[in-house]
Amino acid sequence: MPDKNRTATGVLGGIAGVVGLSAVAGLLVTATVTPAIAVSGAAASSAITMFDNMPSYLEIDDLMQQSEIYAKQGDGSDVLLARFYDQNRLPVTYEQIAPVMYDAILSSEDPRYYEHGGVDLIGTTRALLSNVQGGQTQGGSSISQQYVKNVLVQKCEKEAPTQEELAACWTDATTASGVEGYQRKLQEMRYAIALEQRYSKNDVLLGYLNIANFGGTTYGIGAAAQYYFSVNASDLTIAQAATLAGMVQNPNTYRIDKPERETNGAADGYALTTDRRNYVLRQMLTEGKITQEQYDAAKAEVITPAINPTEQGCQQAGGSAYFCDYVRTIVLNDVAFGETPEERSAALRRGGLKIYTTLDLDLQLAAEAAISIVPATHPNLDLGATGVQLEVGTGRVLSMVQNRKYTQDADQSAADPSYTSINYNTRYVNGGSNGFNPGSTYKLFTLLNWLEHGHSVNEVINGRQRNFTVLTDCDGGTQRVSSGEVKNFEGVGGYNGTPMKFTADSLNTGFLAMSEKVSVCDTNKIADRLGVEYANGYKTYIGNESIGENVNVPYDILGSKNIAPIDMAASYATIASNGVYCPPKAIDAVYNTEGEALPLPDTTCNRVLDESVASTAAFALAGVINGGSAASSRIGDGVPVFGKTGIHEQYQTWMDGSSSKVTTVVWVGNVKGQQRLDRNSANGYSLWRLRHSIWPDMQGAANAKYGGERFATPDSNLTRAVQIDLPNVVGQPVDRAVATLEAAGFSVIVGDAVDSTQAAGIVERQDPGAGRVSGGTTVTISPSNGEGVAVPDVVGMNRQQAVDSIRGTFGRNPAETCVVKEGATGPGVVTSVEPGAGSIVNRNAQLAITYERDTCS
Fold it and tell me: For 113-160, how does the pLDDT look when each residue is reduced to its tens digit (9 = 90+)?
């Protein structure tokens, strides 16, 4: 509307500005002379001086474009997972725009476009005179000038660090009134003229149609045609082209995606937009771009939007949404995508990146089916479940699933607990939780520690329930774990055994016994070496230096820390790759808008374990699947696999394992709280057993696609049978003898009491006897019954002396046997006694003697 309060001074100042603008434009574009106005020439002179001092070169940045994330199908084709943008734009080439669109935009915005040198002096002067005189506000800018303004606005949007600075920059780029408006107009004109000296008319026109706003976040004719009419820009009709051309004057007023609006909505037939479209059609008719018949037909059409929303964000990715979100956080966190958070955010939302990921949709779909047996909600606990798979030897993430649906809408997750934005598979920094207790799957690191110290998996140690003195600190410090403080799963008793057996049975007391020989400190350092850290980012070590207090406690070895499943997967993949650790990798390639490959995040693989250690660990872990605690997860497809179960106090359950090609980790447990899984069920399964249904399906799908070879042969030294010292316990009371032998790592059988001269309950003999024996030997001890007597040595005595001696010891006469010996004299000489002299026999035993004499009667 006209400004009714303009003063004469204001009008004269405006006229002076008009003269200046007109003079400058006339000089530079060799246009016709501005209509004479009775004003001093000082304004024109001043304007020309100011114009000469302005920059003439405008750097045109790349268009703000949407970034896209892709995954691969089994046939190798790329599938769009999600897009991200501040401006929804689909850049098109000159040939991809219908000619009628060019006719519509030029007829209505700049009919003399191909005649001027960047500035339409006639249009600019007409608009300025109208504005100065208080009439209808007119733009008067050529397409080239409008392109310049859009470029400047985009610079603001890309570079302004705060909303306040963005608003100020936007105002500077768009001010249309007052002295500032004239100065901006002069600068715009100078840029436009220089622009057309560098680029062809067609290039400038295409640039304008690709950058212009068409309402909301819809930018460029490609996206506008798709969004408003569900057609390509090349297929626009006359009426559709006129509608879109009309929008550029006031995009948010003329947009047709708000049917609920009272003004310019469906109820009034989009009246404002219809009027504007009809204006464009009249201009097209006037300029001879359409016939009267085409005009009448197009004008008669009712604007009928065919809105085709362009979703953005990972919710587009369906079941792959959490993997998509993991990729999103990598872009926002990794310096490969920018030095600052602002640069990285801009790269994702404005940089037009094409991000090709590692996701294998075959495995992803199989994983989604497998995890579906876990309900998104449970009446008794905050139930969560995840599955993640990594490619062995590269760290490429092949699948990532969880039991809840993805959302970034806090209100939705608050209203419906089956939705969450938290990725349970990843660390907190990657949109994850604070992690979960891995339970016995963490025993892997004690096993590796044991092997790195040269111990054999077949070395026998005392894993019985008892008091333990655990090596916790790297400098030899210990902590005591009292008997009964740590129990084994389902009340299983401890035993003397080997780490091979302890691993298969997941025996807590066995691993405590191992930690009496190798420290918890070294165990935790190995976990750190294999990429495992607290999911919330808390550090206990920098290199080998501790940075916290009580960082090593006995319960660490039983999986008390909060770890992200993806980190456990990377650790088990390290064993499968024979000691080479590869950080999880989610991105295979990234390209910019020019199709140029960009640097990727650093996911360099490194050897962190000796091959002998890794191969022997794989050998031990194979026993867990083959008859051990993970027998329920056995697949039976012939592909060699190893694995490890984990339960943390029935609050968290895990199944971790791998073939030589793909590693799979499954977690089912409490997201928050501590409700026992063994006391709840879902879909016919006890919750703690769900992992054994999910893991075989996921790993089985990987085996079917990728196969797998035998793991490397275990090291002979690390699987050797170890000779150990067997102590002598003869003469000890039975209970002390048993304790002595068990402490030394032997199993003991207490046999029947035997005749002995020792007191009852004293060990009379052991089998085998003391000395060097193989580990795992079972020792049988025989206690005394206290009833033993030594047989006296009566050989050589005469018969009567022998009988008296035996009767005096045993209280009865011996049986006698006389043997005739020619030449013998006297009552006879004893030649033998049975049992033999010195034998220990029961005091009620019957002895027998043999004697010789010349005649026996």
Answer: 999 988 887 766 665 555 555 444 445 689 999 988 888 888 877 777
Q: Is the pLDDT of residue 533 over 80?
A: yes
Q: Give yes or no for a contact between 702 and 659, defined as CB atoms under 8 angstroms apart.
A: yes
221, 264, 435, 480 from 536: Cα distances, Å: 45, 51, 7, 29
Q: How many CA atoms lie within 13 A of 818 on its CB side?
A: 13
User: In angstroms, how far is CA 662 from the centroid of its own chain?
Assistant: 15
From CA 646, how far away is CA 181, in angstroms rounded?
Answer: 70
Which pLDDT score, from 0 to 100, does residue 677 have?
A: 94
Q: How confident is the model at residue 551 (pLDDT cuts 50, 70, 90)?
A: confident
335 and 285 Cβ atoms separated by less than 8 Å: no
Q: For residue 147, what are its two tokens?
A: 């392109």
Q: What is the pLDDT of residues 26-66, one digit of tens each?
A: 444 443 233 323 233 444 454 455 445 555 557 777 788 89
pLDDT band at 797 (very low <50, low <70, confident <90, very high): very high
Query: To 5 degrees, how large is the angle CA 692–CA 693–CA 698?
Result: 100
Q: What is the pLDDT of residue 599?
A: 96
Q: What is the reported pLDDT for 15?
A: 38
Non-local (6+) Cβ contacts of 374 within 8 A are 383, 385, 403, 668, 682, 683, 690, 694
Pair 344, 337: CB distance under 8 Å: yes
Residue 572 DSSP SS3: helix
Amino acid letter for position 613: V
Residue whose structure tokens are 């246009």:
31
Contact partners, residue 115, CB within 8 Å, separation at least 6: none
Q: Tell me, what's the pLDDT at 173?
A: 65
Q: Is the pLDDT confidence value at 590 over 80? A: yes
Q: Characterize 167-197 residue by residue with b for buried, 16 or more Cβ atoms within 10 angstroms of its Cβ, and e for exposed.
A: eebeeebeebeeeebbbbbbbbbbbbbbbbe
**SS3 state of residue 431:** coil
| Residue in 336, 334, 278 with CA at minimum distance from that of residue 303 | 278
Query: Please, which residues have CB within 8 angstroms of residue 340's CB and are 6 or more apart in sequence?
Result: none
Angle between helices 443-452 and 565-576 (to 10 degrees): 40
How would you write 484-529 as a 3-class SS string? Answer: CCCCCHHHCCCEEECHHHHHHHCCHHHHHHHCCCCCHHHHHHHHHH
CA 597, chain centre distance (Å): 24
Average pLDDT over residues 479-498: 86
Burial class (CB in 10 A: 0-12, 13-18, 19+), 631: middle
With 0.90 as the threshold, say if the pTM is over it. Answer: no
Separation between Cα atoms, residue 426 and residue 767, nearest integer Å: 55
Residues 594-621: what's their mean pLDDT? 97
Q: What is the mean pLDDT of residues 631-636?
A: 95
385 pLDDT above the threshold of 90? yes
Cα 465 from Cα 493, distance rounded (Å):
7
User: Which tops the pLDDT comparison, 504 or 140?
Assistant: 504
C-alpha distances out from residue 260 to 74, 218, 253, 266, Å = 44, 19, 13, 7
d(CA 578, CA 610): 8
Strands (E), 329-422: 354-360, 382-391, 397-402, 405-406, 419-420
Question: Is 121 exposed, middle or buried, given 0-12, 13-18 or 19+ CB atoms closer than 10 A?
Answer: buried
Report the SS3 class of residue 723.
strand
Is residue 54 classed as helix, strand or coil in its secondary structure? coil
pLDDT of residue 545: 58
What's the rounded Cα separation, in Å, for the pair 357 and 78? Answer: 10
CA distance 783 to 413: 70
Radius of gyration of the chain (CA): 45
* 359 pLDDT higher than 90: yes
